[in-house]
Amino acid sequence: MPTPLDNALHSKNLFLGFAALVTGVTAWSIWGQDMFPAQEQKPTGAPETWTKGQLKQWLSSRGVVVEETSTKDQLVAMVKTILDNPPKSKA
Fold first, then answer.
1. In this structure, are residues 89 and 82 in contact, taking their beta carbons and an 8 Å threshold?
2. Gap between the Cα atoms of 31 and 2, Å rounded
3. Where are the domains of the chain?
4. If we measure between CA atoms, which residue out of 50, 47, 75, 45 comes closest to residue 60?
5. Helix (H, G, I), strand (E, B) or coil at 45
6. pLDDT of residue 62
7. In degrees to the nearest 10, what's the CA dihedral of 81, 75, 71, 42?
């Protein structure tokens, strides 16, 4: 008499579930970050075209404290200063 475990191992559902899992993992490894971005994209182009939110995010990711009252022109100037004078790495 077959047990429930025997019936589960002979089930087509188990095979189809495993095939779906393998297909999903394969799709993730092939397309990865291009199709399924894990985080927001970094802003590109001239800092003048970035939004105020992008400017604040870019500065805060580099450890720069940004005041809430800063204008967009001030933020752009801060970004340009960092781009022109990148921090020196400790070696």
1. no
2. 42
3. 4-35, 47-84
4. 75
5. coil
6. 86
7. 160
